[in-house]
Amino acid sequence: MAARAKFFDSTISTKGEFMRKDSSFRNWITADGSSGFKAEGDRYHLYVSLACPWAHRTLIARKLKGLEDVIPYTVVDWLMGEKGWNFTDKKPKCSPDPLFNAQYVRELYFKANPDYEGRFTVPMLWDKKNSTIVTNESSEIIQMFNSEFNDFCATPEQKELDLYPEHLKAQVDGVNEWIYNDINNGVYKSGFARSQEAYDKAVTQLFASLDRVEEILSKTRYLTGNQLTLADIRLFTTLVRFDPVYVGHFKCNKKRIMDYPNLWGYTRDVYQTPGVAETVDREHIEKHYQQSHTSINPFAIVAIGPELDFNLPHNRDKMTKA
Fold first, then answer.
1. Are 300 and 288 in contact (CB under 8 A)?
2. 282, 284, 289, 291 alpha-carbon torsion, rounded to 10°
3. Which DSSP string corresponds to 271-301?
4. What is the pLDDT of residue 319?
5. Residue 94 annotated to the active site
6. Are 144 and 163 in contact (CB under 8 A)?
7. For 11-42, what is each residue's pLDDT tens digit?
8. What is the reported pTM?
9. Does the structure show a pLDDT above 80 at 162?
10. Which residue among the candidates 73, 104, 188, 271 is catalytic per the annotation?
11. Spatial CA neighbour of 1 closest among 291, 247, 237, 224
12. How far is CA 315 from the centre of its chain?
């Protein structure tokens, strides 16, 4: 058990604060191939964990843009051990590595760069043509899926769907900046804190920013108005995990998302967007966090609840258009 917890040690500061490291591979796929990575069918393979909120973003963007036949993906084991994410065919929705029959995701990182010294994270987008990693930065993968694969979308409507429209980019980028720091990463900074000071700082900022989002959503259906954007996808993957795992496991228990009328309705609204619900897997989410983080939950006991119905009516589609 101690070995499993050690995986996170390098991300803790001397003050006990959780410090997330930047992604290491930052190449870009373009429709015309000018970047050296051209958008093509049967060229790229996505590696994800259904438990990971960062990986979950990519599955939602892939689904909404109709790229299921263009970007295949492989799901890793929900249990993260001392060597990181591994492949298995013994658990629901998981499968062996189809490209190299690797046992661990880390093996793919070393195939891309034998001298690699970073963390072995998902999501990770692999280029089969050049046998390398394109990127392991989720925020950039979802931008690429949104704009660079339009020639491959399953329907004309999905081709026309723009989750990062030019007229909203400044707003999307603006809310993403503080939502990432305070909420997406804020739950981790709270949960992995190793001092009271670090926890108090992180959890206070987390709930101040959730209150801020609640206020925004009292006026508009989505974060930047009446249109679903990448900002909503990025926030949703944290919100859908909040009550099942972050409230108890990460000590983010000042309020539940269910206690915020607008946030709870908004979470259900995004969940009920066609295609989104099938990307959510509570078994993977709950078992990953509570069985993998033995420094927090040493006996790896998975909690029974809470009872949540994401399909309850939300009525947010009746809000005044912004």
1. no
2. 120
3. HTSTTTGGG--HHHHHHHHHHH-TTTSTT-P
4. 83
5. no
6. no
7. 666 677 756 555 578 899 999 999 999 999 99
8. 0.93
9. yes
10. 188
11. 291
12. 26
